[in-house]
Structures are given as structure tokens and as C-alpha cells.
């Protein structure tokens, strides 16, 4: 149902490098790239994540309560990608582990611009 989610950035080049390295762990690559917007995904007709320089040329800010969830294929992948995000300089917002009575395994983090994301695996 989700086509793409966009995160604003105040340091576009730094954000691009961060997401290139991190999203490779989900087999995602750049599908579209210009000087204001980059889209990553596995296919153009699958959910994508993008970063952008805000169109109104005002500073990008993080919304409270806004979060992007990235689907992982296993609990181990949640752990591995969360660890990778921290190695790349993000901040921990919740260590990977079971949530919602064990229905999900989720690890939360904030990227280099302060956007809140998580890796999630739904299943046992």
C-alpha cells in the first residue's frame, strides 16, 4: 500500500551515503537520483524510501510521532541492520527485541538528520 516515504535532510550528501550503506542490507539500491531527491528500493513498483532537500528551501525538521518502518526478513536481520545503523552514526531509540506481546521484533533508531526509523520483523 505504501509507495514511498520521504525524509527531509539538511546535509543531503551525508544522508545519501548513510542510506546507501544502510539500505544495501535490505538489497535496496538507488532507483532515482537527482540533486534534490534520491529514492531507494528494490523495484519502482515496490515500497521505496527517499531523502530530499525540502521543496520550500526551509530547514528539514523531524516530526514528533512520525516514524518509518523498514521490513526485515528475520529477527537476525533486525539486529544486524540496527547495529549497522548505529555503526554509521545514528542514535539508538530502542534496542531490537520483541514488541506487542512478541508479535513483532523491532529495533528503533534516528538517522543522521534525526528522523526516526525502525527495522521490523513480523513473525516468530
Walk me through this protein's architecture:
The chain is an alpha/beta fold and 124 residues long. It has a single domain, classed as 2,3-Dihydroxybiphenyl 1,2-Dioxygenase, domain 1 (Roll). 20% of the residues lie in helices and 38% in strands. The protein contains 2 helices and 8 strands; from the N terminus they run βαββββαβββ. A 4-stranded mixed beta sheet has the order 1-4-3-2, covered by helices on one side. It has a 4-stranded mixed beta sheet with strand order 5-8-7-6, with helices on one face. Strand 2 (29-33) and strand 3 form a beta hairpin. The longest helix is centred in the middle third of the chain and has 13 residues, at 75-87. The chain is globular and about 45 Å long. The chain starts with a strand and ends with a strand. The mean pLDDT is 95.
Put simply, the count of helices is 2
CATH superfamily membership: 2,3-Dihydroxybiphenyl 1,2-Dioxygenase, domain 1
Which regions have little confidence, pLDDT < 50, spanning 5+ residues?
A: none
Rg over alpha carbons: 14 Å
- CATH class membership: Alpha Beta
> First CA to last CA: what distance?
23 Å
- Overall, the morphology is globular
Instruction: Kindly identify the CATH topology.
Output: 2,3-Dihydroxybiphenyl 1,2-Dioxygenase, domain 1
Structural class: alpha/beta
Overall number of domains: 1
- What's the CATH architecture? Roll
Mean pLDDT: 95
Largest sheet: 4 strands, mixed
Work out the number of β strands.
Answer: 8
Query: Order of helices and strands, N to C?
Result: EHEEEEHEEE
Query: What fraction, in percent, of the residue positions are helical?
Result: 10-25%
Strand content: 35-45%
Amino acid at each position: 500500500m505504501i509507495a514511498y516515504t520521504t525524509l527531509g535532510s539538511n546535509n543531503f550528501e551525508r544522508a545519501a551515503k548513510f542510506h546507501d550503506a544502510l539500505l544495501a542490507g535490505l538489497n535496496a539500491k538507488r532507483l532515482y537520483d537527482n540533486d534534490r531527491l534520491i529514492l531507494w528500493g528494490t523495484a519502482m513498483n515496490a515500497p521505496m524510501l527517499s531523502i530530499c532537500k525540502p521543496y520550500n528551501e526551509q530547514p528539514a525538521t523531524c516530526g514528533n510521532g512520525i516514524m518509518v518502518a523498514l521490513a526485515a526478513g528475520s529477527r537476525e536481520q533486525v539486529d544486524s541492520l540496527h547495529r549497522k545503523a548505529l555503526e554509521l552514526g545514528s542514535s539508538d531509540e530502542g534496542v531490537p527485541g520483541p514488541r506487542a506481546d512478541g508479535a513483532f521484533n523491532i529495533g528503533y533508531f534516528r538517522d543522521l538528520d534525526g528522523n526516526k526509523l525502525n527495522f521490523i520483523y513480523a513473525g516468530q
